[in-house]
Amino acid sequence: MKITVDTDRCQGHNRCHAVAPDLFDIDDLGYATAATAGDLSPGSEHSARLAAANCPERAIRLDD
Amino acid sequence: MNRPPVTDWATDFDHLDPGFVEDPHAVYSRLRDECPVAHTDRYHGVWIPTRYEDLAAIAHDHQRFSSRTILVTDRAESPTDLGFHAPPITEDPPYHTDIRRLLLPVFSPAVVAAYEPITETMANDLIDGFIDRGECDAAADYAQHVPIKVITRMLGIPDSDHARFRDWIHRLIEESPLAGETTFDAIFEIGGYLAGHVEDHRATPRDDIITHLLDARMPDGRALEDPEILGVCILLLLAGIDTTWSAIGASLLHLATHPDDRRRLIEEPDLIHSATEEFLRVFAPVTMAREVIEDTVIGGCPMRTGDRVLLPFPSGNRDPAVFDQPDRVILDREVNRHFAFGVGIHRCLGSNLARMELRVTIQTWLRRIPNFTLTDPDAVTWSAGQVRGPRTLPLAFPPA
Fold it and tell me: Which of B100, B150, B227, B324 is the most exposed place for a label (fewest CB within 10 A)?
């Protein structure tokens, strides 16, 4: 599974980082990017799904 | 002021109706089912969408829905026409985008994290002031002071003027729907007050937001003009106080009246993070407004240029189409895409700060005062207008 943050949609709510701090980086303005470019470990997939499900902007895409 | 009673909520909505102020959710629940986009001829004509998806669509559509009107009032003019500019919240792109970028770094998660220990000390100091009494007004003695102390410190102004801030907030935000000739005078009073502090900072720069604004440069290289700096400071002062105060008070009221949730939060302290989001969802204090600037249709309702629109995020947060058991507080609700802080380009600039303040004030209270009750349910009063929260909240507890 791979994470992509749509930077046009992200408004800096920071919910993803709160739910899954290892999976997202937050820049100085508060906007998120995926911390890992590659495949997630199976253990991280649940956190990734939660992060996507809690994003108020629906800015997180998960691809299998 | 006597206002005619509401005859029909779908066509004669009034957010100042005393029954509505007491319990808006019964009205919103019926509207979501029966007439999801309500209307009123009051306040020069206002649409009130109540479903999550419609609210999200409008909040994301700044091309058609302008922020020049964020407060719905009895005045025919928009607040910005009357001189109420509090950037970025009262502005539209592209200006909004540029000035917001200057402010994002001072409210970033990293900056907020540095304020957490300070906030905890403030909360503890406040509790020291009343814990021996065995009772307090948790709205007036506790909830309101934490956000005042934090935002005044961040801005670089004294917190000792809190009574004036409260008066301005009351007149400008809670009474603004009935805007008389003097309502917006509060803006100029705040401006005059802050102007002195800005001058002081110009002479003696320091590490705070006012100095940051004086040093800031827009993308074209220009410094901010004084009215812009004052407008931003007015926003941070007003928006940073009564909103968070409301969320803290409503959460304490819930915990005072739901001992099972209180015990659970004490026994499972890690739940505080999901609990904070749940309190924000269920007790979301803020209803924003917009003005239609291009004809459009929402939920089958034709919205015309010049129409006003209330955005009751508290209603969207209890939409059963999005949230399971929406009226129940579920402390470990895992999926909680609430929009207590709005969505889209106007996402609350201070959302990370507000959520930290809410979490820390609740955590600190529970650590110091694990057992507490509401002494008199009838004594609880709620603010009216577009920010809703308890303004009187008498709690009792075993004295320390």
Answer: B324
- Our count of domains for chain A comes to 1
Maximum Cα–Cα distance for chain B, whole Å? Answer: 61
Rounded to a whole number of angstroms, the distance from the CA of B286 to the nearest CA of chain A is: 16
Q: What is the ipTM of this complex?
A: 0.96
| CA dist., res. B156 & res. B210, Å (int) | 7
Which residue's entry shows tokens 């993308």? B219
Of B305, B27, B282, the C-alpha closest to B36 is: B27
Q: How far apart are CA B16 and CA B382, in angstroms?
A: 11
Closest partner residue to A54 (CB to CB) among B101, B335, B351 is B335
| Residue B399 pLDDT level (bands cut at 50, 70, 90) | confident
Backbone dihedral angles phi then psi of residue B167, each to the nearest 5 degrees: -65, -45
Domain extent at residue A26: 2-63
Asked if residue B95 lies in contact with residue B231, where contact means CB atoms within 8 angstroms, the answer is no
pTM tops 0.90: yes
In the structure encoding, which two tokens stand for residue B18, read together? 């005393």
Tens digit of pLDDT for each residue in B299-312?
Answer: 999 999 999 999 99
For B47-67, write each residue's pLDDT tens digit.
999 999 999 999 999 999 999
Phi/psi at B191 (5° precision): -60, -45
> Which residues of chain A neighbour B216 with C-beta distances below 8 Å?
none
Tokens of B170: 């009351």
Distance between CA atoms of B86 and B96, rounded to whole angstroms?
Answer: 11
Chain B residue with Cα closest to A30: B108
CATH number at residue A52: 3.30.70.20
Interface of A with B in 23-52 (CB under 8 A): 26, 28-30, 50
From CA B388, how far away is CA B314, in angstroms rounded? 9
Q: What per-residue confidence (pLDDT) applies to B149?
A: 94
A18-37 pLDDT, tens per residue? 999 999 999 999 999 999 88
Compute the nearest-CA separation of B347 from chain A (Å).
Answer: 7
pLDDT band at B112 (very low <50, low <70, confident <90, very high): very high
B348: distance to nearest CA of chain A, Å?
8
- Enter the DSSP assignment of B369: -
Which is nearest to A13 in space by CA: B280, B240, B143? B280
For residue B391, the Cα-to-chain-centroid distance in whole angstroms is 14
Please tell me the predicted confidence (pLDDT) of residue A38.
76
